[in-house]
Design brief:
The protein has 290 residues and is of the alpha/beta class. The protein folds into two domains: 4-58, no CATH class; 61-263, Rossmann fold (3-Layer(aba) Sandwich). Helix content is 50%, strand content 12%. The protein has twelve helices and eight strands. It has helices at 4-11, 15-25, 29-41, 47-58, 82-95, 112-122, 133-145, 167-180, 194-206, 225-233, 255-263, 271-289; strands at residues 60-61, 72-75, 100-104, 127-129, 154-158, 183-189, 211-215, 236-240. It has an eight-stranded parallel beta sheet, with helices on both faces. Helix 6 links the parallel strand 3 and strand 4. Helix 2 (15-25) runs antiparallel to helix 3, helix 4 packs across helix 11 (255-263) and helix 7 (133-145) packs parallel to helix 8. The longest helix is centred in the last third of the chain and has 19 residues, at 271-289. It is elongated and about 60 Å long. It starts with a helix and ends with a helix.
């Protein structure tokens, strides 16, 4: 068989490193094998380039562009970070000179509407509340038909987190999207089990999702979900969020950026190591605060 050095000479990178990346992120076996096969078939200079070529073959990337021709409705499981993702999209659209309208249908969860309103205040954008499809249709219709200073280029709609395994929750989401011909945009947190994420992506694709955004990239070390969910759901990757802060925009996706993300393996760090470091830093911080 090939030794590591022979492999590196033939491929421009060590095939063992490719295997390490696939294993680290926990890619499902079939997908891992397909990526391995594609990456090794490329005549390229680096592991990142090989992975980028493989992702370019397997996945689609469709970043946001403004103005959007339909309202965007953010959907997904609970706790995925829809309000902050919506706020980041709004901030990006405002910077592009768009007039933005924010609407929330998340009136069930405690604090759901308040959270979005706090983001809206920072951008000087009011947030309207829609308790049902009829109210949503009126709000969106008014926004899109307005002229002059009140005109709207982009309508962004937040929804309550839904359990994709509960039909009645999914049906409510379908009714909301259909009432305004919105594009459902799937939002899921990185670090989610990749097989579970893939199954959920397929369910959301059935209700009209064609793109997805991954959140909490900074809070996860394994990103197999970001490959398996779009692959299983036939979704284009629209971006990902690497920070919880509104000032940090969504990352515009590409095969190269995804390859870079997956090849940046974190240094192993134990809890005791982190605790020890915090203990060392604490006296310094206290000195500064005094």
């Amino acid at each position: 068989g090939l030794g590591a050095d022979d492999g590196a000479a033939r491929f421009g990178f060590d095939p063992g490193e490719l295997k390490a990346v696939i294993n680290h992120h926990g890619l499902p076996f079939d997908l891992g094998e397909r990526i391995h096969e594609l990456a090794r078939a490329m005549r390229v200079e680096s592991l990142t380039e090989a992975l980028a070529q493989a992702f370019g073959t397997l996945l689609r990337f469709r970043p946001f562009s403004f103005p959007a021709d339909r309202p965007l409705m953010l959907v997904g499981p609970p706790g995925a970070g829809k309000p902050v993702t919506l706020a980041k999209l709004a901030a990006e659209a405002l910077l592009a000179g768009q007039r933005v309208r924010l609407i929330s249908t998340d009136l069930v969860r405690a604090g759901g509407l308040d959270q979005l309103r706090s983001y809206g205040e920072r951008m000087k954008l009011p947030v309207a509340a829609a308790e049902d499809p009829d109210r949503l249709a009126r709000l969106v219709g008014d926004a899109l038909h307005a002229r002059g200073p009140a005109r709207t280029d982009l309508v962004l709609i937040d929804t309550a987190g839904v359990n994709p395994l509960r039909i009645e929750e999914m049906e409510r989401t379908i009714r909301l999207a259909r009432a305004v011909d919105a594009e459902p945009l799937l939002v899921m947190a990185s670090g989610t089990d990749p097989v579970e994420a893939g199954e959920n992506a397929r369910i959301f694709a059935e209700i009209g999702a064609r793109r997805m955004v991954a959140t909490r990239i900074d809070a996860a070390r394994r990103h197999a979900m970001l490959v398996n969910a779009p692959r299983q759901g036939h979704l284009a990757i629209a971006g990902w969020s690497a920070s919880p802060y509104l000032a940090d925009p969504l990352v515009a996706p590409s095969a190269w950026r995804l390859a870079e993300l997956l090849t940046r393996l974190p240094a192993p760090q134990t809890v005791s190591h982190a605790a020890g470091r915090a203990q060392q830093e604490l006296p310094q911080k206290m000195k500064v605060e005094r």
